[in-house]
Each structure stands twice: as C-alpha cells, then as structure tokens.
Amino acid sequence: MPWWRLSGCRWSGARSGPAGNVAAVTTETAPPTAKRVPAERTHHGDTVVDEYAWLAAKDDPETIAYLTAENAYTEERTAHLAALRADLYEEIRQRTRETDLTVPTRKGGHWYYTRTVEGQQYGVHCRRAVRDSETEPPVSADGAPLDGEEVLLDGNLLAEGHDFFSLGAFDVSPDGRWLAYSTDFSGDERFTLRVKDLTTGELLPDEIPGTFYGTAWSTDASVLFYVTVDDAWRPNRVWRHTLGSAAADDVVVHQEDDERFWVGVELTRSEKFILIDIHSKVTSEVLVIPAANPTGAPAVIAPRRQGVEYTVEHHGHRFLILHNDGAEDFALAFTSADVPGDWVPLIEHSPGTRLEAVDAFANHLVVSLRTDGLTGLRVLPVGSGDEYDIDFPEPLYSVGLDANPEYRTGQVRLRYSSLVTPDSVYDYDLVTRQMVLRRQKPVLPGPDGRPYDPAEYEQHRDWALADDGTRVPISLVCRVGTPRDGSAPCELYGYGSYEASMDPWFSVARLSLLDRGVVFAVAHTRGGGELGRRWYDQGKLLAKKNTFTDFVACARHLVKAGWTASDRLVARGASAGGLLMGAVANLAPDAFTGIVAQVPFVDALTSILDPSLPLTVTEWEEWGNPLEDPEVYAYMKSYTPYENVAPVDYPAILAVTSLNDTRVLYSEPAKWIARLRAVAPGGDYLLKTEMGAGHGGPSGRYDAWREEAFINAWILDRLGRA
C-alpha cells in the first residue's frame, strides 16, 4: 500500500502484586516536577486550563532541560534492569543473522537487493546484472556480497556523522541509469532529494531540499516528479523536475488547496503513466500523465465526490478502479485508458470481503483482500481461466504481495508470516499455482544454543464480548504448555485506528518474552480494519469509544478465560495505539499492572483543535472537527487521556517519545506524565524521550534493538519475570 493511503496515521499508590518490582525499587531522587504555567483556551463556552502547555516550546532551553531530567530519572528508576536489558539485547542479536542479504528482485537487466553487515546499523543497497539464462534469483552464502555486485547506496556511509538517518525515496529510473534518493538526518520526515548517475557513480548537482515521500520517473528518465509539503507539513504539491536543471526552475504540476487532502505520486508498474493520488480520509481523486509525455496536463480519472474513495492501476487498454461507490467493502471495476468514463464492474461488492488493493500484470490480476479477519490473495487470469484464491495452511497468518516491479511476468513474489512463522518470501507461479519458498528469515539459536522450533509455540484465535454484544477477535501466541489457570503473565497489544489492521506478525524480540512464560496477545479492536470497512467505521468519529471499550473487554476476557490475571497483564500501544493506552488507563486502571505508550497521541483534543499543527485538518474526517462541532468537542473531551487524568490508582506507565516527531508531538506524553504526577501522585510514571529521532524511534537497527530491550525489560519487571 502506498505511503499516502496511511499518511495521516499518528503510530495514588503503585499497585501491588507479583508485578510490583518496579514500585518496590527505592530512589533518593524525586521525579522531575514540571512547572505550572496556566494557559486558558475556550471553545463552545467551555474554558480549559492547561498548566503544561509551555512544554510544547521545543526551542525553549527549559523544555530541553526538563526532558533531559526526565530521561535521567527514568534511567535511575530502571537502573536495576541494566543487566536484563543487556541480556535481552544480546538475545535479539544472537538470534539475528547480522550479515544477511534479501532475496534479489529482478527489474529489467538487473537483480536488486539489500545487504546488512555485522556491526553496521544500516543496509547496503545493491544490484547485479542478470546473467545468460538466469531465471532464479541468485543466492550467497551467509549474506556475502554477490559476485559482480554494484553498490548503489550504502546507508552507513550516508549516516556518518549523524545520530539519525532515514531514506525517503529510493527510485531507479526505467532505463536503470539514474537513482533518485532522499535523506533525513533528524527524524522529521523532511528529505533532501538527490540523483546519482549509476554508470559513473557521480552525484548530479540536482539537489532539492524539503521533499516528502514519493517520486516518479518519466519514460525517458529526463523528468523526475516529487512531492513537497505546506506550512502544516501536509503533502500538497507535486513538482516536475528536469534532470540537470536547477530546483528553482521546477514546475508545480498539481497544488492541492483543500486542507483535508494530501497528495502522492508514483509510476505505474507498466511504466506507462504517472499517477497523482489525491486523498482525504474519505474521498479521493486520481490524475494521470502519460509517462512518455511528462509535460502534458494531468487528466482526471474521475472527479472527487465526497465519501467516494478509489485507487487506480493501469492494465493494457484500461484503468482498473478499486472503489467504494455503493460498495462498503469495495468493488473492482475498469474504465478506458484512452478516454476514462463509466466504470465497468469486474468484481462485484461482497459484504464481509474487504478488497484492499489490485496489482496488474500483463496476463493476471492479483487482488489483496481480507475476510473473517485474515488477509488473502485472489488471482484473476486475463482472457481465460477462472479466478481463484491462494490457500495458506495456518489458522492465523499475514500474507501480501512483496516487490513485483516487472509487468510482464508469470509469477509474483509474496511475503508470508504468522505469530510462529518467521517472515518468508515465496515466488508463486500464477499458471501452475506452484509456490517456491525463496527464503525464510533465519532465527539463529538463542542463549541456550537450541535452534528455533515453531513447534514449541502455539497460536490461538479467541473472541471477547464487547459491552454492546460485538465479538472482538484476539490473536495469541505462547509457548506450548503455558498454563491456562490465570498464572501466566501477558502482554496485550492494540491499535484500532485509521482502518489499519494489526495482522499476525513474527518478532525475534518477542521470543525473549515467550521463553520467559509470557503470553502475547493482540486485541483487534474496532477502528482497525481487520473485519472490513464497517469495523473501521464503528471505531471512529462519534463511535471512537468502541476502540477503548473493546480493548478493555479483551483484557477482561483474557482474565476470565484463564490466560492471565489483571495483576499479570501489561498493555502496549503506539501512536494512535498510544491514545488507546491513555484512554484505557482512565477507563479501567484496575485491568492492568503496567502500560507502555509509545509516541502516544494522548493530548488529542488540543492537537485536533489546532489547524496549524501537522495532520490536524486532514484528521478531522477521522476524529471529527471539535472547532466547529460542539458535539465532537464534548465527545473528544470525554475520552482524551490528558483531559481525563483523575486522582485514582493508575498502573505503572512508561511513555516513550521522540523530540523530532512530527506526527505526534513529544509534548503530548510529556504533558500527560506531568499531569499524572500532579493529579495522581502516588503512581509510578516514567517518560523516555529520544532526543534525536522521529515518529519511528531510533533509526539504526542496533539502536532499535536497544530500545526494544529497554521496553521489554520494563514489561518483564512489571510481570514479575525480570
């Protein structure tokens, strides 16, 4: 799924019991005290006093001093976990093949792949020429470089001298000569775009700062399209850059002035058209430009209509249209590529089967879908043959198409995993229906020296009953033989927003929890997309509280069913899932012994009231517009975590954030922790701020492992398994 389809995503005394180890640790240092500087705001006759609004001043030395003091306090409060953190980090490292190589993907006359090298934080992006009669991807022993490889980009060299590094664009031109790539060294997701000549290895003087995700090449590779943002950091402009010219001469191809919408750009797999996707939360419009005529005026596939979403894929003489016009779970149609007009049905709407994407190849279409809470792939032969679904063996799994850049091909590459099956790459023959495993991510022996055996773990699908009678799915994994008498500790993960689905995924770091007897569970609450569009609609706007009550229902069910007990249960969520964490802390503090909230959207009302902030206006169709609608204002105020901190016994809380996060500002968890300490002072609340990263946290893989080890050590301590 292209990035822009999810670009608005935001990612009294301590309780006693067997998980009370953190609370039992004493320290002579008191937690930092945030000064109170009352700031008032009034909306719809309601005046709110925000004593900690000053923490939003990122450039104020007092703010940085406070965050630094919080980091020091958190480090002191968790100092007793240093050895455990080191063990967990080492377990991740031991189980990971550090020098490794992805399965090469063919595009034109080259195989493209990425290598990692032991001791290096970032990937090395490479290609190797396809050799005579070579039909299968080349392999190497233990991740060694392929014979004859060409290094296109080494992330480790680019990252030298920087604490943070991220690639935005990585786009090779259709003729294979040019590489457009962009870099971010702060974590704010604002990139500098450059072009490299792959025949000489030299960088062109072309350099464009302040770009966003998304690029597309013209057919002859003379023109590069890219995206920039407005003052609120909303991607709103698509530009045309002629190779070798100055950025000041670039031309705006489309500017989106409606602040509800964001834009993206891509080249179709057929390499015939540039697509400009214009999307709000509930409405879309697509413009096309022939890639062979990049200076041509964009043509509209179908004018935007409020509430109608559609995406476009080019296929021969037609454009494929995946849409929800009279089709809640989406239908597939097509229209003429020469003169777009009426939509001709191809796959009719089927309630309960959510069509999510269509990928076009010369002789086949592959539709990504979900039904009964599981992902799937449907193949439609072109011209002859019946459509069919690809079967998969496990009761819980995630499957989707991987990189498939070739249009004329008889096979597709897909990626498969489950809670017990490591990430697996398959090549699937669309004619013979044979599936060949190209690679399963290695899981090396852990501390005990034994190889990973999926048979030692078991996965389950369970269902909780929500307050309104709705059945809410839960995915679980644990070691075989884990008791069901309530004695096992458990981590419950949740998200529940933006129609994003938390499909089962494998995690090397999670093995360290499972092997210590922890049950891992995922609550598939409303607001996500696991059970189709209706599941999403029932957890947004004025139905948002369903997300929170569903999660609590899942927690209560796990206790009732004997999976765990409330004093052995830790909740975890990130971004909009962090909002979920803050909401359930207020709603049911007795249900958990600990809560981990990463980059948490806990001051949602304040943010959604401020149109100048990144994402706010585009988010109004997700949360409602509290500026204009008093009902939305009152509803959001009734659940926003920061607004509803109360003098109750909260579980221990660990909030993790990043200073340069542009999706959820660091000030939200900082203010939340400050208010928790003031209103419910007996609790155990920690704030950890990454001072040089963005929404995704640390960028290097070793740094990310250390961050995960830190969080998992805290979780194990709360669960009495430290």
UniProtKB/TrEMBL annotation:
GO terms for biological process: proteolysis. One of its GO terms (molecular function) is serine-type endopeptidase activity. Residues 31-438 form the Peptidase S9A N-terminal domain. Residues 505-720 form the Peptidase S9 prolyl oligopeptidase catalytic domain. Keywords: Hydrolase, Protease, Serine protease. Belongs to the peptidase S9A family. This is Oligopeptidase B. It comes from Micromonospora coriariae.
